[in-house]
Amino acid sequence: MKFNYKLHRLCGASYGTPAATGSSILSSSSKGSNIVFTSDGNSVLSPVGNRIQVLDLLHHSCRTLPIEARSNIRRIALSPGDDRLLIVVDVNHYAMLVNFHRGVILHRFKFKHPVRDMKFSPDGSKFAVSAGKYVQVWFTPGIRREFAPMVLHRKYTGLAGDVTTLDWSSDSSILIAGGKDCMARVWTVDTVKDYKPWMMVGHKKPLVGVHFEDSDRINDRNQFFSGAGNTGSTLTGKLVARCYTISEDGVIVTRECRKEEDGEVNPEDADNEQSNGLENLGNDAVDFFSGGGNTLTAQQPTKTKDTDQAHAIVKARWGNTSRHYFSTNSSSNTVVSTSYSSAHSLLVVGFSTGRFGLYELPSMSNIHTLSLSHSTIGTVSINPSAEWLAFGCPKTQQLLIWEWRSESYILKQSGHAYGMRCLAYSPDGIVVATGGEDGTVKLWNSHSGFCYVTLPKSHTAAVTAVEFANSTVVLSASLDGTVRAHDLHRYRNFKTYTSDTPCQFLSMAVDKSGEIVCAGSAEPFRVCVWSVQTGKLTDVLTGHLGPISGLAFHPIRGTLASASWDGSVKVWDLYKSDGGSAPETFENGADVVCLAFRPDGNQICSGNIRGLLRLWNVDDGRLICEIDGQKDIKGGRKLNDRMTSDNNAASRYFTSIVYSADGTCLLAGGNSKYVCIYEISQQILLKKFQISFNRSLDGVLDELHSKNLGDGGPLDDEHDSADDEVNFAPHLPGAKRADDGSRKSRVEVLTMQVAFSPTGREWSTVSGEGLHVYSLDDDMIFDPIALTEAVTPSAVQVNLKNRKYGMALSMSLHLNEFALVKTVIEDTPYESISAVVRSVGQAHLNQLIQFLSKCMEDSPHVEYYLQWCLALLQTHGIFMEKNRGKFLRNTTSPTSAVNWPSSAIPFIAERGARGFDGIANENQRTQRHLFSVVTVHSLSVQRSCPTLRKDGAQLTSLWAAESESKLEHGDAKSNAPSKSSVAGAGSWRSKAKEFQQTLHDRPETSNSDRKLNIAFVTGNAMKQKEINTILSKHGATAGLNGESYVNLRILDVDLPEIQEINTEAIAKNKAIQGAQLAGGACVVEDTSLEFSALGGMPGPFIKWFQDSLGCEGLYKTLIGFEDKNATAVCTLAFCSYPHADPVLFTGRCTGKIVEPVLGRGFGWDSIFVPDGETEPFSCMSTEKKCDLSHRSKAVVQWAEWLGKNVDELWERQQGRPAIGHRGLNFKPSSTEQ
């Protein structure tokens, strides 16, 4: 198992900082951090806590940059043009210089004053920072690591209050800043002779936005003052600059800078009219040495002047031309944020009431006004093309991307109101369901990282557990005392489960079949058991003396394990006839807070408050080993702790544990900043992950600063916001939800739950910051095994050119470059795939499957890649089965890659793209092929991993559901595959429906006429005849004696078979499929023929040998051997109801292989002569063959077993609880969806 997991993305929050549960820490004036668009306008950078989310709006994906700030991020800035540099500043003034494309931190430094605004110049050569009352301009460093990359250009002063906003002119020569002193000031970036900074007044509230208009637009609209401005200004002259200042009270003032024309001379400047070449040369010298002018030239000594706006505003005058008001009631509608597109003259304004407005300047025409939320819009941004508007609401952690022309959402994301509490992966690993403190359940796409639906709120308290019953049903338990079932097709709550007495549910579990759901309560201390379909409370399990902290179902059997604060773990058998029998109890010696079953069900792990993980043998109740994790998980001193982290027992135990997919490792998390992975057999810590380094969270630091320790305990003087009006007050000790008297409380760093993805390639944990997803998918490690000088990328291309595809693939796998491997895979002809796969060594199978899975994620060639998967299973299936633990993780990934487009359908419809029906009409043949191939071969994929059986069934039902209507009404015959097994697979559902309808229409059976309705699922008519003959002889079906207890109906379907050398495994798998198709009891049969000379081959593969070689070819395979002995084996599997464990009956017949003798038999009857006989089966009568054959021996055993258990089976068929249970364990009745 690999352990180089890395944080892939942070889900659950797309903007803002995590808020303490129940607290209201953000005032109406709190702005949060800013949002930035990339230069192409297709991606958004959104700070979340101390991390940055990059949201790709074109590809609808999200990733988290692999960097972390020291505290919550206050401001970010991205260099224009190439987006190469990103500057990040946190709330404590610490900054990072980051290479954005590579995600590498180049330099760290600290500003000495609060930073409220920061912007790069339009040419990218400098960036300006508001540092307290000053504005600092720094030179933009390079992308290489340097000892001192930060070089200060100049510091600008003149404002009496802290600077809150700033802006650059379009040519990067002028800088304007506004502050809390209600004034704005204009500076030239470089020293310009005779220029004096201009102070702008006229506002009564602090400024929230200052913006320059583009110089090109000024030149296009160059006009003169009319002399009738509302400020009374009588300035005339050429317009050289225009800016806008916006204050909190909703006032926007337009200011213009005008300069007298060359023919007009002010009286005060009359003495300075004459200038000579020496003065001009002096001006150029000032510009040269200040860095703002052009290089000195003797030919043009006077052209430096008026080449940029900085020189144009010299001796010019600023005046107010207009004043506008956004709202008449400015006290309740405060302006919080602004953004301006100078190239399009569009201004976006966000208000404290959750409303925004879009205006065209300078006319102040209102283009658009919309109310987005009830909370403050903390930041707004407009992309370079001025088409998309981004809004961030810090209080609700909501991010919205709005297209104002079409008036539609491009993206709308928000997390849980007070944080997440629990999570669960869907069976295919594509969907993640999370429950929050606000009582909502959200569904996240694990590929894109976005929340695609919030289920209608039905819980009135925090959600404590979520589980998937199947791929379409998710269950949630809550403190409000209900368990609710949600339909993922219609997104509604279709069933609610309640207890007979009011209680709060802390834990929940669903059995593997999805028919039983259990929930454990806090008080009274009991476990409630419901039927998922009927919603009835079927049982109540009592015996614990404390709250039920954890529940888990056995992965295979119907066994339930419960953990409690009373220090015990109890194992219950829910399907025993004597339901009142005492459960098996495992004593732990301390309060048990977490519980988990190993995937094979043979081991159970429990964790207690002493930090011990105890592993038990489920069968005999023996304690296998203990893992002491106190020292591994300890760490982090909280603000109100009165002791050090080493002595604090509250954070030294695990609250959530889960096994890895192969069962060799254990993932554990708890009330700490660490998540640990343990190796079970060696009982050692393999790796420890720290989920966050954000110092704004409580419990990140192991030691608090000594200067902040007082007599009454720790006192933290560091604020999580740069706004002075937000104050900090410690909450009462032990108050998790923030007491009413506190204005602010810190979010505690801890992990509420951990979970492994079914694919095994990622795991997730829920913390106060959201859902942390750690993945291996982006990790490609160079593998130097078997490398020589001849193995090069050019050699791979040469082999491709020479059509040596197998050699090219082998070389590319050794080089381990994804782009190269993908090129080889997609250049391989369809008909050569099988031959190329045979050339792949066993050492590179895992690697090839991983590459195929990654290629399938975004490739349209689904059929082509499924052929690769099929060839892999046919060639290396036996080896993969013997090493199923090694291939467990990667074998599920192809299933996920095929399944994930189904979750994208809502997005296609929402964005107005072509509907899925239109796409399906254009790709009917691909759908037919997918349905056929997946149906026939999905069980082959499952073969290498037992845990994939459910995934395979879901994969089959997915494509069947989406394409069933298309196949039945389209031209299915012309494009159907030629093989009978593939063609027959498309009619499974129709045949099963007809069969179930026949059983439904049959009149109800009376007690006096007890007959079992059993389906015999087979595609061989001769087998049907033989089994009917054998059963009638033994009275099981209507025969000579006239009495019978079995109604044997034939379901003519040729079931697909897994590639397995064990006939019992094949028969079991076919029986499970048959029971689901028939909707009730069924029997299937599998036959094998074992040649002694060939070591038991062909065995169960005799069907394919017979089809390929015929009887003559089978006989010729033994011509060179003296030993002609053979054994015919028939395995009969009976399944009493869907999802039941099949009962097996085996019959054997020994004999010899002879030359084919034509007769009435079928299959290989013409070459097999039983011992003691002189003629093969093909020459015998049907009655004689039924007395001697292997099939008759198996059927006789089955008939005898049916006779002994007919009463129990009949009771089961009538839907009543079975009586007696002579060796049978029945589950509650179910209806196949």
Automatic annotation (TrEMBL):
Q: Which domain of life is it from?
A: Eukaryota
InterPro entries cross-referenced by the UniProt entry:
ITPase-like_fam, PWP2, Quino_amine_DH_bsu, RdgB/HAM1, SSU_processome_Utp12, WD40/YVTN_repeat-like_dom_sf, WD40_PAC1, WD40_repeat_CS
Chain residue ranges for the region called Disordered: 967-987
Q: State which residue ranges cross the membrane.
A: none
Tell me the ranges holding the WD repeats.
Answer: 156-197, 413-445, 541-574, 585-626
Which residues belong to the signal peptide in this entry?
none
The record places domain Small-subunit processome Utp12 at 816-890
Q: Which UniProt keywords apply?
A: Repeat, WD repeat
Family, according to the entry, reads as follows: Belongs to the WD repeat PWP2 family.
* Protein name (record): Small-subunit processome Utp12 domain-containing protein
**UniProt source species:** Cyclotella cryptica
